[in-house]
Amino acid sequence: MRHLLWIGLIAPVFSSPAFGWGCEGHQIVALIARAHLTQATSAAVDELFRSTPIDPALNRFCKDRPNDPLADAATWADDTKSAEKTSVWHYVDIPRSATAVTSIDPWCPPIGPSVDGKNRPGCIVNAIEYELGILRDTSRTPGDSATALRYIVHFLGDIHMPLHDSDNNDQGGNCTSIQFFAEERPANLHAIWDYKLIQRELEKDKLSQPAYAASLNTRFADRFAAATSGPADAPLAWAWETHAISESITYGKLEPAIPVETPNPQSVCATERDKVQALHITIGEKYFAEAMPVIDERLATAGFRLAALLNATLR
């Protein structure tokens, strides 16, 4: 899930909340990662989660969760972010016009403590670094380590979702209005990439999350080495990589195109949504065929990198 503000502003029009990859996508990332964990790492993951299980009283948004502790943990950070004041940790609003030679600092302030109940500053890049520091600290309690691990599992999915690394004064696509196939009501681009495209693919092929994860793991097996060839922890590079995909595919394949906006912190969601609605963009089979290979690659790459990161950290 992304901006909490988005839910209040648009819920009357768009009834489904947006998650970074949605339930299915996050679970698929975790299941792909599980297939590449060493035996020791896999055991360490399960032991941490057994030692400090998720509170059974927690209201879990995702009801259909695979029977795997890693996949179950993959959506926990969305369920708790309001209480934990970590909403801003799930994304980084890099403007569409920015390039990788630009410092990320303007969109990624340092993480700090909660003040007066407000969200702590930060972004997904330094949130991953912060939680990795906790997971690597052997003096931490098992509870601290399990919580950090749940965040890392989720954030590795989020950072590979294009609209969690890009913004066009539209809260990462949340403040848009687009026709999705023949659905009665318009959707927003963020929700379309979060879960609508993936759900359509799963329904088309009648696949469960574990089956789809296994399929992706097989299809992209020859890319594992390349995806994990850099440092095990490189969230800044991953953010820029995914930002570029957002520009070339997520926004870039829309017809007609949404113009690149000049960054404006005072932009109004309703105004930006109206601008996009006036373009009468419809997503159908053509965009679906262009987007799904990219989504598949992002899910597989996120899973591969999550596995490499955990193998390097929990060995």
3D architecture notes:
Helices cover 52% and strands 1% of the residues. It has 315 residues and is an all-alpha fold. The protein has a single domain, classed as P1 Nuclease, CATH 1.10.575.10. Helix 3 crosses helix 7, helix 7 runs antiparallel to helix 13 and helix 11 runs antiparallel to helix 13. Strands 1-2 form a two-stranded parallel ribbon. The N terminus is likely disordered. It starts with a helix and ends with a helix.
Number of distinct beta strands = 2
Beta percentage is under 5%
**Proportion of residues in helical segments:** 40-55%
**What is the SS-derived class?**
mainly alpha
Specify the overall morphology. Answer: globular
Number of spatially distinct domains: 1
Radius of gyration: 18 Å
What is the CATH topology descriptor?
A: P1 Nuclease
Which CATH architecture would you pick? Orthogonal Bundle
Average pLDDT number: 92
CATH superfamily: P1 Nuclease
Low-confidence segments, given as residue ranges, are 1-18
Main sheet overview: 2 strands, parallel
| CATH class descriptor name | Mainly Alpha
Strand order of the largest sheet: 1-2
Number of helices: 13
Report how far apart the termini are: 30 Å
